[in-house]
Amino acid sequence: MTVRTRFAPSPTGLLHIGGVRTALFSWAYARKHAGVFVLRIEDTDLERSTPESVQVILDGMEWVGLAHDEGPFYQMQRMDRYKEVLEQMLAAGTAYYCYCSKEELEAMRAEAEARGEKPRYDRRWRPEAGKTLPPPPAGVEPVIRFRNPLDGVVAWNDQVKGRIEIANTELDDLIIARPGGVPTYNFCVVVDDWDMGITHVIRGDDHVNNTPRQINILAALGAPLPLYAHLPMILNADGSKMSKRKDRVSVVDYQRQGILPEALLNYLARLGWGHGDDEFFTMAQFVEWFDLANVSPSPSRFDREKMLWINQQHMKVADNQRLAELTAPFLVEVGIDPTQGPALAEVVGLLKERVTNLVDLAQQAHYFYRHEPASAELAAQHLGDEARARLGRFRTALSALPAWDGTSLSAEIKRFVAEEGIKMPLLGMPLRAAVCGTTQTPSVDLVLAQLGREEVLQRLGKLAG
């Protein structure tokens, strides 16, 4: 059997991190077993689904690097197939037309609640042996309901939660097509999983209640049942449920915050799954290690500080040229042209171990491309008359330096400090403040080497002006 998994988001908003983790686990399981990962867009919610949301999903999946093998398939393009299966079920008696009005359904619900019972449809239009149905009311467009079994249980061995059993008496006759014949979510999912040969349905545990209904529909169709794995929720650090409106849950948010896609996946992988004490790993390692048996059924808490630490580890080992390409847009956004100055790949190589994200990396790179004078407070602290005079002498020494590189600059700094009879901070701190506008920089000789002789002399010259 070839393992076939799927990720089936609904394009009714942004691609959120819970969905990305579901996609990641589905993708990894398929990769681990040399299987197929299918991308399916569940776009039957015509009121909320938009082309823009579809594109956000596709862009987000491309950004995190979870490439699908088949798809994307769109449910709205499969309507003929759904209607074909609906007709088959109506003919087989596993589905039936229901003409109940909204008012009748509300009355049923109220009566059940008055009796202290679970509110549900009373199956008045369900065909039974010896039962006479009323004639269909004129002008009422019916829905189609699934003829759910009346007794027994629906059971499955969930690959994360263990065995789950639901009594059929807890399930009503589900609507599988709305007035006009438009199929509903639970029906489309069943037909899609059947047609696409999905062997493992890996999804969030908010779908647990849908599973017994879908299993019963699959059984009615004589279709094979996939294995189900329901992943625990991701909660906020305080244990509260994440809100799409209040919390930063969109993958786009993390891209804008300068998180590397491999770092986000690494962190999401650790939410509900583990491999010993391993925290930092590549996606190749994750695929090798991943097993549904190691997924915890308990909810996970999102820890932003831990995510930033993971991101920092990935930045440290990332290729400098790639980091430069990812950092450049953040510089352009604030009006800095990174082509007008030292090679950005060299700059990020100096800075990347000092930051936790690309936004901070870009911020710390500003002074390489734009001279930002020290603040009044910093100048008062480090650029007094004595410091300015010393920097003037140092500028003269630098202008005569035969070679301009890290080694030469380091030697010259040591020579000048010895000649002045001072400790290194009395040169280093004013030098950083004057040239970079900050005292927080990498090794000052390497910074000066990247800035170049002309730029450094020009910036130092402004002190005398």
TrEMBL record:
Annotated ranges, domain Glutamyl/glutaminyl-tRNA synthetase class Ib catalytic: 3-309
Domain Aminoacyl-tRNA synthetase class I anticodon-binding: 322-462
Broadest EC class assigned to this enzyme: ligase
A Pfam family annotated for this UniProt entry: tRNA-synt_1c
Localisation: Cytoplasm
Xref: SUPFAM superfamilies: An anticodon-binding domain of class I aminoacyl-tRNA synthetases, Nucleotidylyl transferase
Gene Ontology terms, MF aspect: glutamate-tRNA ligase activity
Binding site for ATP: 244
Catalytic reaction(s) noted: tRNA(Glu) + L-glutamate + ATP = L-glutamyl-tRNA(Glu) + AMP + diphosphate
Residue positions of motif 'HIGH' region: 9-19
Record-linked InterPro entries: aa-tRNA-synth_I_cd-bd, aa-tRNA-synth_I_codon-bd_sub2, aa-tRNA-synth_I_CS, aa_tRNA-synth_I_cd-bd_sf, Glu-tRNA-ligase_bac/mito, Glu/Gln-tRNA-synth, Glu/Gln-tRNA-synth_Ib_cat-dom, GluQ/Sye
Alphabetical keyword list: Aminoacyl-tRNA synthetase, ATP-binding, Cytoplasm, Ligase, Nucleotide-binding, Protein biosynthesis
Residue span of motif 'KMSKS' region: 241-245
Superkingdom as given in the UniProt entry: Bacteria
Entry EC number(s): 6.1.1.17
Family to which the UniProt record says this protein belongs: Belongs to the class-I aminoacyl-tRNA synthetase family. Glutamate--tRNA ligase type 1 subfamily.
Known role: Catalyzes the attachment of glutamate to tRNA(Glu) in a two-step reaction: glutamate is first activated by ATP to form Glu-AMP and then transferred to the acceptor end of tRNA(Glu).
Binding partners and assembly: Monomer.
Protein name: Glutamate--tRNA ligase
Gene: gltX
